[in-house]
Specification:
The protein is mainly β. It has 5 helices and 22 strands. The strands form 5 sheets. A 6-stranded mixed β-sheet has the order 13-12-15-20-17-18.
């Protein structure tokens, strides 16, 4: 029996993995998507918009179009100050809206390449641009910005930088949190497939519980449930203290969040305000990025942390979870009773459904 540590540092029996999972490959030949764009007016340039959605389970990937810079103008459905990039790193659940300017007829290669070492896989499509002057796009030899592993081919390639993401119009963030929850992410129960947002695997523990929306508990706060008051500002500090671990894309339902800080090493403070006294350079309360979710920092060799803040304005029972499907299924999630003092009233027909 071959036993090595591959799953979050836990022992794994490699001999139990079926041979066909890795060693048997049946080649297939699929179609290649062609996005056709025609010059629609007499101007010398045409702008085309793309929506990029990270509809993945475990993958992180790079998106790029050979020879064509992209202007990112919206993230997770909300406008930002446009950012010119050559490539975008896309993680589970991400949504980007970009504009691309076309001036010369041609076929441009669209590249989408996974960057996680567990499975390097890439695909291509074609952006075919025809002008009124040139009936056919002809050949295009634009050099790629990234290779088949999603890595930049030169130091001149610009990736989307979330740190520089600014909301448009400006969307001010609260300057002080009313409550702080420090959550430690990682494996639990001694096995590599069980994951926790704060020490307890959620799905197995809550499977038999009554829905929180139907029967809220105003004072309940534990490893699986967080309770907030309406119109308050809440901080989450996500700590990754055991390693190696991948980046965890954390998504909160019901509200967007601001990432107000991040860093490497242990988060040894009880609040953001306390941490800012010692490391103010690690925080941004002026114009931080605002999104549906944020990924924790990669932690191959040491602990990391990120701090996010949100405003409770949408009372209800919501979910906080990792967007990697196996981590969610393994238990990395919490229930939030948001604005429990203003909870919505559930119609009686839903309460008695199936009775």
């Amino acid at each position: 029996m071959a036993v090595i540590a591959v799953a979050g540092g836990y022992e794994t029996d490699i001999s139990a993995i079926p041979d066909e999972l890795f060693d048997i490959c049946n080649p297939t030949k699929g179609s290649k998507e062609v996005v056709e764009v025609k010059q629609s007016c007499d101007k010398d340039e045409t702008w085309v918009a793309f929506e990029i959605v990270g509809a993945y389970t475990t993958m992180t990937a790079t998106f790029s179009i050979d020879g064509l810079p992209m202007w990112v103008y919206a993230v997770d459905g909300e406008y930002i100050e446009p950012q010119m990039v050559h490539a975008i790193s896309v993680i589970n659940g991400d949504r980007y809206a970009v504009l691309v300017k076309l001036t010369e007829a041609g076929d441009y290669t669209i590249r989408h390449a996974a960057t996680l070492p567990i499975q390097l896989i890439s695909g291509e499509a074609t952006l075919s641009y025809k002008t009124k002057k040139d009936g056919s796009p002809g050949n295009n030899t634009a050099a790629p910005y990234v290779n088949d592993a999603g890595i930049a081919v030169s130091t001149d390639v610009v990736f989307f930088n979330q740190t520089l993401q600014k909301p448009y119009p400006p969307y001010p963030v609260g300057q002080k949190a009313d409550k702080t929850y420090i959550l430690t992410l990682g494996n639990t129960d001694g096995v590599g497939y069980m994951w926790a947002m704060n020490g307890t695997a959620e799905p197995m523990a809550l499977d038999s519980s009554e829905p929180v929306l139907f029967k809220p508990q105003p004072d309940l706060v534990n490893n699986l449930t967080i309770t907030t008051q309406n119109n308050t500002w809440i901080d989450f500090v996500f700590r990754v203290e055991t390693f190696p671990q991948p980046a965890h894309p954390i998504h909160k339902h019901g509200n967007k969040m601001w990432q107000i800080g991040s860093g490497h090493g242990f988060f040894n403070w009880t609040s953001v305000e306390e941490a800012m006294q010692e490391i103010p350079e690690s925080f941004n309360l002026v114009d931080p990025p605002r999104r549906d979710g944020f990924a924790t920092l990669d932690s191959p060799r040491g602990p990391t942390w990120i701090a996010v803040r949100y405003h409770v304005t949408n009372p209800g029972a919501w979910f906080l979870h990792c967007h990697i499907s196996t981590h969610l299924q393994g238990g990395m999630a919490l229930v939030i009773q948001d604005g429990v003092d203003q909870f919505p009233e559930v119609p009686e027909e839903y309460l008695s459904y199936g009775a």
